[in-house]
Design a protein that fits this description.
The structure is a single chain. It contains two helices and eight strands. It is an alpha+beta fold. The protein is globular and about 50 Å long. GO terms for molecular function: GTPase activator activity.
Length: 139
Amino acid sequence: MRTPVLKSLLSSSSRKKAKLYRFDKEGNQWKERGVGNVKLLKHKVNGKVRLVMRQSKTLKICANHFVIPTMTVQEHSGNDKSCVWHAADFADGNLKEEMFCIRFPSVEKDTVVASNTKEAVKDEAKTEEDKKDEAASKA
């Protein structure tokens, strides 16, 4: 049972209910991945942020990936309640590059999650810059 240890190492931002889609390149269409709560989890030791979403009824993970500096979160084609991004996702147990779209019931919830994600991206970029500066000063 490693769950209590993991929970003590992670801090969570607010949970927001949403519907997640992934883009199917073969069919050239969006496919529903699940409905549930999306969370941004920050590791207390190394500071890395992970986006995790579980389906409400089955609790199956439908999104599980790190928030990285190169990740861009954008509004989805003029819809204020949804946003899109690319990520290397682990939800199926294998690393796979996916394009996601997440839709919230209200504009306010989308704004909160999008701004929290963008802030996490900036923090991650700053952390990487600090590591590079530290490595350069040691050399």
